[in-house]
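user: can you give me the structure for this one chain? tokens are fine.
assistant: on it. calling the predictor now.
[tool input]
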Amino acid sequence: MDFQKVIKDINDDERYKKARIVALQLPEGLKRKSYEIIDAMKDKEIILLGDPFWGACDIPAQGKWDLLIQFGHSPIPNLGNFPKIMYIELQEKMEHDLDCSKVPFSSVTLTSNITYSNELKSIKEMLENCHKKVTLKKGDSRVFYPGQILGCNISAARGDDEAVLFIGEGIFHPLGISLALDKKVLAFNPRTNEYIDMEKEKRKFLTQRYAAIEKASKANKFGIIVSTKIGQTRYSLANIARKILEENGKKTFIISTDLIRDETLMNFPGEVYVNTACPRVTIEDYATFSRPIITFYELEMALNLKDKSKYILDEIVMTDEIGSTSFRGRDKSPGHN
């Protein structure tokens, strides 16, 4: 991260110049640099938001500040415009270059998360110089950059190419692609220079998921989780889940919560929990829960409403508000008038 450039971009923004109280939403790894960031904003009253946050979907509902600066994520277009939120994307340069000879496909769909989305155009040109067909396209209305993959949305990866190439760190995003698409997925880590065939990770994950589906098929009491995060709220989906569970003779209740943790759920009577919030909770955090957490599509498989032989990844395309309307056309968030 070019810290000086980040600070300059903030200082040059008219919204920052006009603000007196500024709230900072920092990823966990960046919270250690809080003093450095605060020192660069000496003319402002700074509030550090302590709760973990996972993306542009995670915008605080209320706040006594003039401007919220969210570090590490790009906007989610279909949530609407938030004039009092500044997104600082923290895009990085690659420490290692992609080796074309280690991409054993004649055609690939090129993808990344926000961190390396700025590198995709030059990677596309390099691969094309190696005589490969490369698709770099924008996903649906939830995605900001061409090729960008979110934890809840892999629409930019869909296409007719032989395989998908993911540029980025960790396996969460490429695992999501592999689960959603019936094709090869290769992940390249520009920091470690590793090339990972996601097939093995996919098989390991599916073993875990089908065990959870089997437990759900035998359960009678289900809690249905609805997020209060404005970019994750799918109350309408929760109501559909409740309806089909009750039609199958199951007992249900809906829990509305911000952070989804085991200690939040353990005192409720659910044997299994259906997660309609961020799919990352189900995929990446599953082992932290003492009772099974499944997605809506896994619920349908557990109730024999979907074919169990074809796994369906839970993705968020649109969100809704509790008891209200879709976010289409939204231009304000609570507390950010």
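assistant: here you go. The chain has three domains: 3-88, 100-197, 206-302. The domain at 3-88 is CATH 3.40.50.11840 (Rossmann fold).
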